[in-house]
Amino acid sequence: MRKLILLIVAGLAVGALFGHLMMSVPGYWLIRVGDTSVQTSFWFGLVLLLAAFLVLHFILRLLSGMIRPVGRFRTWNSRARNRRAMKRTVRGLVAMTEGRWKRAEKTLVKAADDSSTPLVNYLSAALAAHYQGNYTQSQEHINQAQLTTEGADTAIGLMQAQLLIDRQQPEEALAILNRLDKQLSNHPQVLKLLKQVFLSVNDWEGLRRLIPRLAAQKLISQQEREELEFKAYRELIIFEAKNPSDIERVRSLWADMPDYLRGKTELIVLYAEALLQANEDTIAERLLNHSLDHHWDARLVKRYGLLNVDPSRQLVKAEKWLQERPNDPELLLACGRLSLRTGKWTKAQEYFEASQRQRPSGVVCAELARLYASLGEHNKSQLYYRHSVEMLAKSLPSLPQPSDANDSQPDGKRAKKRA
Predict the structure, then answer these.
(1) How does pLDDT run across 250-292, given as a tens digit for each residue?
(2) I need a labelling partner for 138 at 20 to 30 A (CA). Which of 83, 107, 232, 357 fits?
(3) Around 363, how many Cα atoms within 13 Å sit in the side-chain half-sphere?
(4) Residue 320, domain extent
(5) Name one GO cellular component term (predicted).
(6) What are the start-end ranges of the H helices in 257-344?
């Protein structure tokens, strides 16, 4: 109600103002054509001009609509087809979600020409064809997507790479991903797929260089990073150690390795083995010395006992460790072996027997058997050889033996007896 009153008051004010203008600004219009003339007041002529303009505008719009009915129909038809295409696209995507690949592919391709997003239709159809095993048809849909949409190279390339990985064709996928990686540095999905491909083709060098980029983009956790780095460096050291003449490559890997990995026993042993194969025993000894001073591990002790750099110096070092760990069976075994290298037979015997008392072992029994045989004590040698075989037999799988009551005869002889 209040708005209505305001409108009435405003209308009266405008009318009063217009009336005042008509009274205070007199004038007239004179139009003369030949002997005919028309004269009217200024304000009435102004109203006529305004009315003529409105009528002319309405007539022009009407004529324009009558002249272009086909264009209007085409526009309407295009919008209608687009709406139908969108509905079909939705039905196709729903069918994809439900696992009805054939129906999804057919529906999505049929709707692609009229769809406002043909890229989505063709890529989804390619995925549906891939799940059906129709790889050729899938590639055709990807090619069609490339033709219909400009600037979609990244999306199309990622789709191709993912499908190739699923088809167990990692080399082809790697070629696409390397091209995308050059174009789009540190693209998250590209990096993820590169990690997947490097693992599948055992490209440990590629994975080693990729890991920092994955971590920088927060695409892997700290735990996964450590696991991947450990695996990559381990496999690289194993591979490079096959060529002892190129020990510098192994050195370079060890130098580039993160500090926390240099404390991993398995990597230390692998590096030490590589150094020994390259006849760099002294460096291997220093490595094992340093590692055992900071990180005690039975595997390192065992490898140290097998070194032959300076047995006397090594034995002194091992006996120093033994003061801190007098009951360590692996260290006692290492001291026994180093004693053998220095010609201290009695001391070697004592260390071996002490190791055997701490933890019975077939290896220690074999060392004692060999030592006693060399010393001419054959009875003791035979005893320890028997102990060694018995301990080794305990680790064998349980399998039938000829001594079993039901298996005392070979299969062929049992068959003849039955006959």
Answers:
(1) 999 999 999 999 999 999 999 999 999 999 999 999 999 999 9
(2) 83
(3) 10
(4) 309-392
(5) plasma membrane
(6) 265-277, 281-294, 298-305, 311-324, 329-341
